[in-house]
Design goal:
By secondary structure, the chain is mainly α. The protein contains two helices and no strands.
Length: 71
């Protein structure tokens, strides 16, 4: 069974030591970039606390009848 390199999409068996180092270095940089992006997204996308969630739910439920035309 052959394994394909995630970086260069070539067979790993054809990699010499320098090519392996280059591909691993490139993949490491990509992973670091993904981790930084994930950290930024976590700071932007915050889970509301219980009070905020309940407040949003209450506002949504009280606004429903007027949106449905039953008011």
């Amino acid at each position: 069974m052959t394994s394909t390199c995630f970086n260069c999409k070539e067979d790993i068996a054809n990699h010499d030591s320098q090519k392996m180092i280059d591909c691993l270095t490139a993949l490491s940089g990509k992973v670091e970039s993904l981790q930084k992006n994930l950290e930024v997204q976590k700071s932007v996308l915050q889970v509301p606390d219980d009070a905020e969630a309940l407040d949003h739910f209450t506002k949504t439920k009280t606004g429903e009848p007027s949106r449905m035309g039953s008011n």
